[in-house]
Amino acid sequence: MGTLPGFRQFFPQECALRDNIFDTWRRTAKAFAFQPYEAPTLEPLELYIEKSGQEVVDQLFCFQDKGGRAIALRPELTPSLAAMVGAKAAALKRPIKWFNVGECYRYERPQKGRLRAFYQFNADILGEAGPGADAELIALMITTFQNFGLTEQQVHIRLSDRTLWLQALSSWGVPQEQLFAVLNIIDKREREAAQQVIAKLEALHLEGEKLLQAIDHLSSLRSLQAIEAFLNTNKHHEPLISRLEDWKVLMAQLEAMELLPFITIDLGIVRGLAYYTGFVYEAFERSGQGRALAGGGRYDTLVEKLGGPQLPAAGFAMGDVTLQDCLQAHNCLPAQAPQAAVFIAITEESLRPQALRLTQQLRRHGLQVQGTLKPTSLNKQLEQAQHVGAHHALTVSPEGLVAKDLRNGHSEVVKEDVVVEWLRAKGHSCPLGSPFDSDLLKC
Amino acid sequence: MGTLPGFRQFFPQECALRDNIFDTWRRTAKAFAFQPYEAPTLEPLELYIEKSGQEVVDQLFCFQDKGGRAIALRPELTPSLAAMVGAKAAALKRPIKWFNVGECYRYERPQKGRLRAFYQFNADILGEAGPGADAELIALMITTFQNFGLTEQQVHIRLSDRTLWLQALSSWGVPQEQLFAVLNIIDKREREAAQQVIAKLEALHLEGEKLLQAIDHLSSLRSLQAIEAFLNTNKHHEPLISRLEDWKVLMAQLEAMELLPFITIDLGIVRGLAYYTGFVYEAFERSGQGRALAGGGRYDTLVEKLGGPQLPAAGFAMGDVTLQDCLQAHNCLPAQAPQAAVFIAITEESLRPQALRLTQQLRRHGLQVQGTLKPTSLNKQLEQAQHVGAHHALTVSPEGLVAKDLRNGHSEVVKEDVVVEWLRAKGHSCPLGSPFDSDLLKC
């Protein structure tokens, strides 16, 4: 009996890699003073209907529970987040800066970069409408890549704007109720031939050829100057001129943070989800290989749609599957930590109680200690010490405690009552503190 | 639209508490040189049928996916673990010592200490049949409690033995195929009246009254001496005499680790799951209040039953819900960390680019830094600095950078090019290293 298609088993080596990715996500979010939150893994189905868009709804793992409720495994975090913040908005200090590292589920065809269960890093800012929030989110996304060791030669952020798109589409005569359908067509434009796209637009009773030409022109803009020129030559876009101000603030802030080398203005990006409203962006490898590494944007109307107050919001998600492929391709996967730092051996079985006492003492200090669980020859024990990657072997013998540095073979006798200090001096960290510290921690 | 019954939303304060519990679980498991693993959240339904026992199967969240597969949300980790290890047993070095921190799901009536989604710490040793593995697992369980600040006055481990029970029941004439049904009755004995238990035993066509008397006697044993006496006066238990040796080794090892103060021998414990075979144990508050904090035992036949090789195995699980109630009752919940360590303020809006550059620099060092996202008066900014718990406010002004210690009000001017060193000297940690270190990390 194997696993279900699209689900993964993480053996220790893969799990350590995953945990390393999680650690970098969490540490970077905390450096940006984002706070952790968690939403339920299962939610009422209706949370996703019409909020996330048809593509997500088609891919839901959903079912009836034993109480007859229609429920779904979360395909993404944003609706849950918007519902949580909406329910307590009055009590939360603004700006609300929250992050999550958790698993999401989509019933898709498993393929490279896409699985049915995957982890996401979500970061969101609620309660701040200005481009300062967008800049901070983009900075967090880029800094996360940097903390993995990725550079602007390897990844970039394609930055776009739904506000521009929605206003432009309206001015081209696309009716309100078809805006999202057209955005969805634009979202897939890169992968489709012109004739296919025209047919789709005509199916919506729109002037396919003319509209596609306009779409392709706007999609092709790659600089603030080009956007400005487009707006100036299209006077009917007047409401959009003020939008230029937001663009200028955003770009100036990214420049101040020295992040412009990572940014590519690219109006070809519109994002697939229904709820986006303002700046949107996706991160890709520079090479153009692989799916998006991360994506996000502003969703100023979602909290209210889910029953909360009017609350501006923006955020992004970064998935583990594409990211790990990218880190591997660029040789950025971190080295594996050893299973144990210290191995405790015994020269004869009668010394086991003494070894166990020492083992327990060191473990209480947070040192990573391995011993044997049953009678084993000293040679086999020292083999195991090598196997678990220990730097030091401490051998309990009738003559006392012999400490051997397994990296250089050097041995010396160490008094048992100073062994913790001795190991510390050798560079072993004691993350749980000294016994004195842990007494202080006692309640 | 609220959450589903039995599911939790974690707002930042609750999420920080949860993460703190996870950290202690992980650090303690690593001190014992256990390696992390992860199993799928969804598994084929058949993985749990007949392996976990009827109680777990009755509580499964199970459904058909869009491909017609019968699938279940994992109610526990052990069957997945046994399947994973079984599939790669030949390639894994023994002893296999693995741990997991993850979410499980059971469709139960939500009540105090029981939810439908909960987190578990699972730790298991596979490939070692002797009591040394049981001793190490019990030590890990106890040390975990100690690392939370709980003492032997507050919690204890009720230690029992399925081997004893299975042999005794057989010798009392309980047929092989009814052993598990009777164990299930014994598991619930504490909460039921004698007449109820007798009726249940008689429904199995067993001599209810006589059998209950024998059961109650064995359940009442509370010491190694009492077990020894019981075995000696029941000569038909001869195969069990050798079992005494295992008990003696286990108790001697726990004594060497100075853990006996936490141990209560208590044959009233049999554990509810079908697959246990040897030593079993549950952790409770000394006061007797609340449900089990953790439980575990040996399951030497499960790996083989799931299609793997014959492989001895033992492990335990600790849940977050009862544990958190216990930590709260004993005032052992950790203090909340502040949202940010450093706040960066500006005296005028034109200095924002400079402040953003500094913010980004400090965040790249891993310092937890908050600033404002939009124009705000200096007073409001310093209020926000207090609100996020920052120890230092760095104010960018035309005269330079002013650093204020928000705990004592002391201010001084700091040169921007030494501000990282200055903050380090004030006790701020830079978990992401110096820029030099992070250059080294670059690939």
Give an overview of the whole structure.
Two copies of one chain form a homodimer. Chain A is elongated, with a radius of gyration of 28 Å. Chain A contains 16 helices and 16 strands. By secondary structure, chain A is α+β, with helices and mostly antiparallel strands. In chain A, a hairpin with an 8-residue loop joins strand 9 and strand 10 (294-298). Chain A has helices spanning 12-31, 54-58, 78-88, 131-147, 162-171, 179-188, 194-203, 208-219, 224-233, 238-256, 302-305, 320-329, 352-364, 378-387, 419-425, 435-441; strands spanning 35-36, 42-44, 62-64, 70-73, 96-105, 117-126, 155-161, 263-265, 279-285, 294-298, 313-319, 342-346, 369-370, 392-397, 400-405, 411-414. In chain A, 40% of the residues lie in helices and 19% in strands. Chain A folds into two domains: 12-329, BirA Bifunctional Protein, domain 2 (2-Layer Sandwich); 354-441, Rossmann fold (3-Layer(aba) Sandwich). Chain A has an eight-stranded mixed β-sheet with strand order 1-5-6-11-10-9-7-8. Chains A and B meet through helix 1, strand 1, strand 2, helix 3 and strand 5 of A and helix 1, strand 1, strand 2, helix 3 and strand 5 of B.
Say what oligomer this is. homodimer
The total beta strand count of chain A reads: 16
Q: Provide the domain count of chain A.
A: 2
Largest interface: A-B, 107 and 107 residues
Structural class of chain A: alpha+beta
- Separate helix tally of chain A: 16
**Named CATH topology of the largest domain in chain A:** BirA Bifunctional Protein, domain 2
Task: Round the mean pLDDT of chain A to the nearest integer and report it.
Answer: 92
How would a crystallographer describe the biggest sheet of chain A? 8 strands, mixed
**pLDDT under 50 segments of chain A (min length 5)?**
433-443
